[in-house]
């Protein structure tokens, strides 16, 4: 365990709301996963899994409301992202569940986390959560998928992302980052504030798993029937991964998940729904999670 430090570009209100966190390390096959923790270890836990090319900061606006509601909030940097190691041979989401399972076991053994755990996964993190709980159903009591791909429902409109690593200046790179954020992550130009740009630019610099391909398959759709925990979903109305197909996905998921929970569409929001429509997303998540178990 060591001291948690917020990124220096976070606005003062967020720095205050995120103060008091701890930074925890777990090991699996010699690779370190870094976890960020808020709240008391005795409280029921919510594990938040970030999206591809991201880090814990994908949830930067949602942590404090969960903590205020009484949850222990655990947010790892997934292996290969943020401050966590890239395990040898790890090239995609299907290699992550062992690290999450082992990490949670180590946190529980050390007293940093109790036995009551819910998992909420955004995008790539939703894929990771589904595969994790399919392989280790005893690890959590609930799974909430947020904008998760891997459903075998590719949209006919390819998301037009651009490369940036070859560009010589931060200004040129930021121009591409703005394009990519609007192409995939956000629906409204007003949502692309300075914080979103700074978070994204810092996160993509630390993505060491660049050739991920499983998101374009049906790997999550095939995993859902294996899950023994209740499954719910929260998606932005304008999620770029499901343009013109979101209603089709809404109809399919209760058929795939044997223990279906709730579906929530957040009006007006894009893929990064928990950032773009924070209040509406937090309300939907609180409804899905329910009150904190005694």
Describe the structure.
The chain is built from 10 helices and 9 strands. It is of the alpha/beta class. It has one domain (2-289): Alpha/Beta hydrolase fold, catalytic domain (Rossmann fold). It has a 9-stranded mixed sheet with strand order 1-2-3-5-4-6-7-8-9, with helices on both faces. Helix 2 links the parallel strand 4 and strand 5. Helix 3 crosses helix 4 (124-135) and helix 5 (170-185) crosses helix 6 (194-204). The two termini are 27 Å apart. The mean pLDDT is 96.
Which structural class matches the secondary elements?
alpha/beta
Strand order of the largest sheet: 1-2-3-5-4-6-7-8-9
Q: What is the CATH superfamily classification?
A: Alpha/Beta hydrolase fold, catalytic domain
CATH class placement: Alpha Beta
CATH topology: Rossmann fold
User: What is the overall pLDDT average?
Assistant: 96
Instruction: Note the beta-strand portion.
Output: 15-25%
Rg is 18 Å
- Total count of domains: 1
Which overall shape is indicated by the principal axes computed on the Cα atoms? globular
Give the low-confidence spans: none
What's the number of helices?
A: 10
């Amino acid at each position: 365990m060591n001291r948690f430090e917020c990124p220096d570009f976070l606005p003062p209100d967020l720095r205050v709301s995120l103060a008091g966190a701890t930074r925890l390390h777990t090991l699996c096959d010699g690779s370190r996963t870094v976890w960020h923790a808020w709240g008391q270890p005795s409280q029921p836990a919510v594990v938040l899994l970030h999206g591809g090319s991201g880090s814990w900061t994908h949830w930067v606006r949602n942590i404090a409301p969960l903590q205020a509601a009484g949850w222990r909030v655990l947010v790892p940097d997934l292996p290969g992202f943020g401050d966590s190691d890239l395990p040898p041979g790890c090239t995609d989401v299907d290699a992550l569940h062992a690290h999450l399972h082992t990490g949670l076991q180590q946190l529980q053994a050390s007293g940093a986390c109790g036995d009551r755990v819910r998992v909420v996964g955004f995008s790539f993190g939703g894929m990771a959560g589904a595969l994790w709980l399919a392989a280790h159903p005893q690890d959590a009591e609930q799974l909430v998928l947020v904008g998760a791909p891997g459903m075998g429902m590719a949209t006919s409109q390819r998301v037009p992302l651009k490369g940036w690593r070859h560009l010589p200046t931060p200004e040129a790179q930021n121009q591409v980052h703005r394009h990519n954020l609007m192409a995939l992550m956000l629906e409204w130009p007003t949502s692309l504030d300075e914080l979103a740009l700074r978070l994204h630019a810092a996160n993509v610099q630390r993505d060491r798993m660049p050739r991920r391909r499983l998101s374009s398959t049906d790997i999550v759709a095939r995993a859902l029937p294996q899950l023994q925990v209740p499954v719910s979903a929260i998606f932005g109305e304008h999620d770029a991964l499901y343009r013109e197909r979101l209603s089709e996905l809404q109809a399919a998921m209760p058929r795939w998940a044997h223990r279906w929970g709730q579906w929530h569409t957040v009006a007006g929001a894009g893929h990064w729904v928990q950032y773009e429509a924070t209040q509406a997303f937090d309300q939907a998540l609180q409804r899905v999670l329910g009150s904190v178990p005694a």
